[in-house]
TrEMBL record, chain A:
<keyword id="KW-1133">Transmembrane helix</keyword>
<protein>
    <recommendedName>
        <fullName>Potassium-transporting ATPase potassium-binding subunit</fullName>
    </recommendedName>
</protein>
<feature type="transmembrane region" description="Helical">
    <location>
        <begin position="67"/>
        <end position="85"/>
    </location>
</feature>
<comment type="subunit">
    <text>The system is composed of three essential subunits: KdpA, KdpB and KdpC.</text>
</comment>
<feature type="transmembrane region" description="Helical">
    <location>
        <begin position="6"/>
        <end position="27"/>
    </location>
</feature>
<feature type="transmembrane region" description="Helical">
    <location>
        <begin position="537"/>
        <end position="560"/>
    </location>
</feature>
<dbReference type="Pfam" id="PF03814">
    <property type="entry name" value="KdpA"/>
</dbReference>
<keyword id="KW-0630">Potassium</keyword>
<keyword id="KW-0813">Transport</keyword>
From TrEMBL, chain B:
<comment type="function">
    <text>Part of the high-affinity ATP-driven potassium transport (or Kdp) system, which catalyzes the hydrolysis of ATP coupled with the electrogenic transport of potassium into the cytoplasm. This subunit is responsible for energy coupling to the transport system and for the release of the potassium ions to the cytoplasm.</text>
</comment>
<keyword id="KW-0633">Potassium transport</keyword>
<keyword id="KW-0406">Ion transport</keyword>
<feature type="transmembrane region" description="Helical">
    <location>
        <begin position="618"/>
        <end position="637"/>
    </location>
</feature>
<feature type="transmembrane region" description="Helical">
    <location>
        <begin position="33"/>
        <end position="53"/>
    </location>
</feature>
<dbReference type="InterPro" id="IPR006391">
    <property type="entry name" value="P-type_ATPase_bsu_IA"/>
</dbReference>
<dbReference type="InterPro" id="IPR044492">
    <property type="entry name" value="P_typ_ATPase_HD_dom"/>
</dbReference>
<dbReference type="InterPro" id="IPR023298">
    <property type="entry name" value="ATPase_P-typ_TM_dom_sf"/>
</dbReference>
<feature type="binding site">
    <location>
        <position position="396"/>
    </location>
    <ligand>
        <name>ATP</name>
    </ligand>
</feature>
Length: 570, 681
């Protein structure tokens, strides 16, 4: 067990070591300084020349959001039709069929919003063409969308008074050419050398030692898995995600995938401090996020290592921890770590089945997604944290007897209104969604249009409730992991989660950008002794308290009926 | 004025209790979204309770239990209304006591014939006076209305308004021409023009503000209301979605439990006290004898970054005083002092008087100025003095003026006196050179006396983050010296009225909020430009119109108090919001297990307070939720104490008291109430 825990600590350590130089590099790229990656510049110029975009044209926050939403809509339409008609498109050696309209709707949205909630299995639901040119493509651009939105907020926070916040297309393209693409290539190479497939050939046939003949799916896996983690997307090439031996062959790939999904979110926190030249502010945020992560991680790993008490009651020893639904090559502790990281970061890839984890771990996974701001997804994690900062600034500003100010700008009714709506949104989407499914399940158990809700849940009772709660939580957090055990491949779940996905993605991006943009256009107020210091530890603790209490208050009754009730019943 | 510091005087409580019921009117309640939802919940509970009572149906719990829940919820609404009512009543009582001074008094109105004021005087009631009317006052008269002296000078007893017993001088023209209704003329005869229509004086405006008729929410209050409304919405979502969740878990939840959960979760504590806090802020300002024209002004005062203070009267006591005589070599000290005193005997300026004072009675009593002619100060000569009957001419004035005078007559300026002049200037003093027949005799040192304790107050302001700026007509050298000695951060020397204005503009352009105090008509533009402009009540009408507060005490240091009142107002809102939200944690631990434990016994595990039964748990949570409102009314009215210890330390302190305290207190409170109820159930 000590080896397993040291492996976890080493993985986190490597992540930090890599995040630091990466953050410096990111800051250089977005400040427009010279970097080694300037060889990409001609490619970028070509792109702008063809598209007729002037990358020097400065935009205000509204223009940024207009550009962001427009291009996202284009991608959605493209993905929707490509998925529906993928059987007519090339690169389909296994002859997989086109997706139904509701499944294509859900899949397209889910990849556009960086969620990757997969209501299909990679082996049968998509083709190599859609895997590469729809899904992997969206994994790049959706991650870049989040980062670009965050850079706009960085620029707004940095300036004293301005409405000119850079050019969206310029920021967006550079995110891909300078950050995501080069890093993905390196990661993909590591994967290939560790045995991950990268080919366009169809299924292979293998005769096992028992003498059975089985078909093994293959494909261009390595490149897909690289951006899947780097872009905190999490959608698996195969149905079994990173528990699949060809998607995560050994401990080296396990560590690489683990590092890849956390490195950008952490680097963005450091980059925040460097970009706006308030390093202490970023360190405090990093500290609070890390404490939050450890707070979720320890109970999870402890529960997984200790094993299932129900099995222990039967007198069976569990020396390796709770092994149901886990891969032997990773073990209980590592899977516990992965499950925490993948839920706090909005990746949502899995290396073991969350449905089989202990109720305590399930609770932590849910909390991780409900908070959705401990490091968080590419760009969007800090955007979510930003909203909590605004609420904390407002309350603590009043507490020190001054009209609240943040980064030298007054926080007034308009900004508070936006922050309040965004805070309200998550509980609304998660609870209303779960309430809807619970209501359909109890009152229309045999509705044919919803493919017989009685058949949805593999498990009755609290665990079944957790499955539904998890699905909406995952959709709202744009996480994409599933508790599984939920029959979600039907119209009801495809459509309802689809809408949760859209709202849960774009409003929490628009909100912080709008607040930051509005604030940046206000008069700059120099700091005085009476100004609340937002880079102090005290303020960090205040933000943490706001995050914890708001989350607890919103979800406590729902969690009580799910994982908490299950925990106390075991 | 006597300030009644009792929080709940009996007669106000009775009136407020009545108002608590009047305010139940949904039209009034809807202004406060948090309490409005509680009122709806209470109405629903009334129906449920009546249903249970008359049908005997036990599906929703016993009638007694439902009635109990209804009564507690009803009390919650009443308590919140009471908080607002008592704050209003206190503010109103305070304002009324000021208004009492201006009850109907006879006014000696000067009759107007056509366009011309005659000398005909008619006794009319003060209530009939209109703006522009002219009345006269003789010794012993109560001034019938606010106005400006157009003719004459009088000493006036303003103790009815300010509580200050020493009479003040008011005279026509200049900045001391304003008189206030209700004050008493002690001597002399004045003619006054009425400056406000009846019912439109500042006091009347203030009373209207407190009463709520014209009370508008301040920007911070609006923002906070939005935040509280969104919390309320979150809890509506939590409670509504709980129904299908409970259906899934096959747990019936009673309406009483739903409404109790909802009412406990929404921020009723701050919601109930919010308007009381705002009114109490204005009331505290009024108790400090400051009349505010809007609630916003008080709030803005808390944000002030820069404070402009006049040197004279604020930082220094009155005017400069003579502190030393330095005779030129060859002239006896005694002779020099005699000359100085002689030159100042008929000099009525404060400096002149202080020279005579310093010279001492022994010398002064021997002097005589009969037959002498006084030479007044002019801007041209920049000196004053006396021509004695024996032909001697004594002059005193600024260094360069006397130097010019001496040199014209062929005398040189003595080196040792020049050295002294420089030394005095470097010490922040004002040198006054004295000459006899154009020959320099010596120099008088005039010094400013800095008010005791003023530098501590500036220190306190600095810790609050407020920069203090001294405004003075002195030369830069003197100004710098006094600024250093008094501990102000910056100064404007040789200030002309427009300098104040441009300084304010400059600071505002850099994003700072500026407060200033003024009384003269030439202060009016700056008062209007400043974010917080406090006009002295003794000031001109123009100054009072331009500012957004009026200080009845005419106390220039009042600004410091106003800043603290503003900060207190915001802090009280912030801390009570924190307290209110923090309370919810304990309430959840009381109610959630109570909701589900019947059908999910495992959830007994989260009943960490070990409450007696689901009913007692719910009742004790709502009771705690209700009684915390009246318990916090004193805090809301008095305001959270402001300590100038820096923003971070202040946040830490308030987080500890109201955040951590807010989490712990309800655990203890609910448990105690539960133990008490368990005795009866």
């Amino acid at each position: 067990m000590t080896t397993e825990i040291s492996g976890v600590i080493a993985t986190y350590g490597i992540t930090l070591l890599l995040a630091w130089p990466l953050s410096r590099y990111i800051v250089k790229v977005f400040r427009g300084e010279r970097t080694w990656s300037d060889f990409m510049a001609p490619l970028e110029r070509l792109f702008f020349k063809i598209s007729g975009i002037n990358p020097k044209e400065e935009m205000d926050w509204k223009q940024h959001m207009k550009a962001l939403l427009t291009i996202n809509l284009v991608w959605f339409v493209y993905a929707f039709f490509a998925l529906m008609f993928q059987d007519k498109l090339p690169l389909n050696p296994d002859g997989n069929p086109g997706q139904s309209a509701d499944l294509a709707f859900n899949t397209a949205i889910s990849f556009v919003v960086n969620c990757n909630l997969q209501h299909y299995s990679g082996e049968t639901g998509v083709t190599y063409f859609t895997q590469l040119f729809v899904l992997a493509f969206l994994q790049f651009v959706s991650a870049a969308t989040g980062i670009a939105a965050l850079i706009v907020v960085f620029k707004a926070m940095k300036e004293k008074t301005t409405t000119r916040l850079g050019n969206f297309w310029d920021i967006f393209l550079k995110t891909i050419t300078r950050i995501l693409l080069p890093l993905s290539i390196v990661i993909a190479l590591i994967f290939i050398f560790n045995g991950m497939p990268a080919s366009f050939a169809g299924k292979d046939t293998v005769v096992t030692m028992q003498g059975d003949t089985i078909n093994v799916s293959r494909g261009p896996v390595a490149g897909f898995v690289a951006i899947k983690h780097l872009g905190t997307n999490g959608g698996g090439f195969f149905g079994a995600n990173s528990a699949h031996p060809l998607e995560n062959p050994n401990y080296v790939t396990w560590m690489t995938e683990m590092v890849a999904q956390v490195v950008i979110p952490i680097a963005m926190v450091f980059a925040l401090g460097m970009f706006i030249q308030r390093k202490k502010f970023a360190y405090v945020i990093f500290g609070i996020m890390t404490i939050g992560m450890i707070g979720l991680l320890i109970p999870s790993m402890q529960a997984e290592i200790a094993g299932n008490p129900a099995i222990a009651h039967m007198g069976i020893q569990q020396a390796t921890g709770a092994m149901e639904g886990k891969e032997v090559r990773f073990g209980a502790a590592a899977t516990g770590y992965w499950s925490t990281v993948t839920t706090i970061i909005s990746t949502g890839s899995v290396c073991g089945w969350h449905d089989s984890t202990m109720p305590m771990t399930g609770l932590m996974q849910l909390l991780g997604m409900m908070l959705n701001c401990l490091y968080g997804g590419c760009g969007v994690g800090i955007l979510n944290y930003y909203i909590y900062i605004i609420i904390a600034v407002f309350i603590s500003g009043l507490m020190v007897g001054r009209t609240p100010e943040f980064m030298g700008h007054k926080l007034e009714a308009r900004e508070v209104k936006i922050a309040a709506i965004i805070t309200l949104l998550s509980p609304f989407l998660i609870l209303a969604g779960t309430a809807l499914s619970s209501w359909v399940l109890t009152h229309h158990p045999d509705a044919n249009w919803a493919v017989k809700p009685t058949a949805w849940l593999n498990n009755p009772g609290y665990h079944g409730f957790s499955e539904m709660l998890y699905e909406y939580t995952s959709a709202n957090a744009n996480n994409g992991s599933g508790f599984e055990g939920l029959g979600d491949g039907n119209v009801f779940w495809n459509v309802s989660t689809g809408f949760v996905l859209i709202l849960g993605r774009f409003l929490p991006i628009i909100g912080p950008v709008a607040i930051a943009g509005l604030m940046a256009s206000k008069k700059y107020i120099p700091e005085s002794a009476g100004t609340l210091k937002t880079d102090s530890l005290t303020f960090g603790v205040m933000t943490f308290a706001v995050i914890v209490i708001l989350t607890a208050l919103s979800y406590f009754p729902a969690l009580a009926l799910g994982p908490i009730a299950e925990y106390f019943s075991l | 004025m006597k300030h009644d510091n009792k929080l709940f005087p009996k007669e106000l409580v009775m009136e407020s209790l009545k108002q608590s019921f009047v305010k139940l009117n949904p039209k009034l309640m809807i202004k406060n979204p948090v309490m409005f939802t509680v009122e709806i919940g209470t109405a629903v509970m009334l129906i449920v309770a009546l249903y249970a009572l008359f049908t005997g149906n036990r599906e929703q719990g016993s009638a007694a239990y439902n009635i109990a829940v209804f009564v507690i919820l009803f009390l919650t609404v009443l308590f919140a209304n009471f908080a607002e009512a008592i704050a209003e009543a206190r503010g109103k009582a305070q304002a009324e006591s000021l208004r009492k001074t201006r009850e109907e008094t006879p006014a000696k109105k000067v009759e107007l014939i056509g366009e011309i004021f005659t000398n005909e005087i008619k006794i009319v009631s003060s209530a009939t006076l209109r703006k522009g009317d002219i009345f006269v006052c003789d010794p012993g008269d109560i001034i019938p209305a606010d106005g400006e002296i157009v003719q004459g000078l009088a000493s006036i007893d303003e103790s009815a308004i300010t509580g200050e017993s020493a009479p003040v001088i008011r005279e026509a023209g200049g900045d001391k021409s304003s008189v206030v209704g209700g004050t008493k003329v002690l001597s002399d005869h004045i003619k006054v023009r009425v400056s406000t229509e009846p019912g439109e004086s500042f006091l009347d405006k203030m009373i209207a503000l407190v009463e709520g008729a014209s009370r508008q929410k301040t920007p911070n209050e609006i923002a906070l209301t939005i935040l509280l409304a969104s919390f309320t919405l979150v809890f509506i979502i939590v409670c509504v979605t709980l129904k299908p969740f409970a259906d899934y878990a096959q747990t019936p939840i009673t309406i009483a439990a739903f409404i109790s959960l909802f009412v406990c979760l929404i921020p009723t504590t701050i919601g109930g006290l919010l308007s009381a806090i705002g009114i109490a802020g204005m009331d505290r300002a009024l108790r400090a004898n400051v009349i505010t024209k809007s609630g916003k002004a008080v709030e803005t005062a808390g944000d002030i970054d820069v404070l402009l203070l006049d040197k004279t009267g604020t930082i220094t006591i009155g005017n400069r005083k003579a502190t030393n005589f330095y005779a030129t070599n060859g002239i006896s000290s005694e002779e020099f002092i005699r000359l100085c005193a002689l030159s100042s005997l008929s000099d009525e300026t404060p400096e002149g008087k202080s020279i005579v004072e310093l010279a001492g009675k022994d010398i002064v009593n021997k002097l005589s100025v009969s037959g002498a002619s006084m030479v007044k100060f002019t801007a041209e000569t920049r000196s004053s003095g006396i021509d004695l009957p024996d032909g001697n001419r004594i002059r005193k004035g600024a260094y360069d003026a006397i130097k010019r005078l001496a040199e014209r007559e062929g005398f040189s300026f003595p080196a040792e006196t020049l050295a002294k002049v420089e030394a005095i200037s470097n010490d922040g003093g004002t040198p006054l050179v004295v000459s006899l027949n154009s020959k320099v005799q010596g120099v008088i040192e005039l010094q400013d006396i800095i008010k005791p304790g003023i530098s501590e107050r500036f220190d306190r302001l600095r810790k609050m983050g407020v920069k203090t700026v001294m405004v003075t007509g002195d030369n830069p050298l003197t100004a710098k010296y006094i600024a250093n000695k008094a501990g102000v951060d910056d100064f404007i020397a040789e200030a002309k009225p427009e300098d104040k204005m441009s300084y304010i503009r400059k600071e505002q352009n850099e994003g700072r909020l500026v407060a200033m105090m003024g009384d003269g008509t030439n202060d009016a533009p700056a008062l209007a430009q400043a974010d917080v402009g406090v006009a002295m009540n003794s000031g001109t009408q123009a100054a009072k119109e331009a500012g957004n507060m009026v200080d009845l005490d005419n106390d220039p240091t009042k600004l410091i108090e106003i800043v603290e009142i503003g900060k207190q107002l915001l802090m009280t809102r912030g801390t009570l919001t924190t307290f209110s939200i923090a309370n919810d944690v304990a309430k959840y631990f009381a109610i959630v297990p109570a909701l589900f434990v019947a059908s999910i016994p495992a959830l007994q595990g989260i009943n960490i307070m070990k409450l007696h039964s689901p009913e007692t748990a719910i009742l004790s949570a709502v009771i705690f939720n209700a009684i915390i409102i009246p318990m916090l009314i004193p805090l809301a009215l008095r305001g959270v104490a402001y300590k100038p210890i820096g923003a971070s330390a202040l946040l830490r302190r308030n987080l500890l008291i109201y955040g951590v305290g807010g989490i712990i207190a309800p655990f203890i409170g609910i448990k105690l109430i539960d133990m008490l109820i368990a005795l009866f159930m």
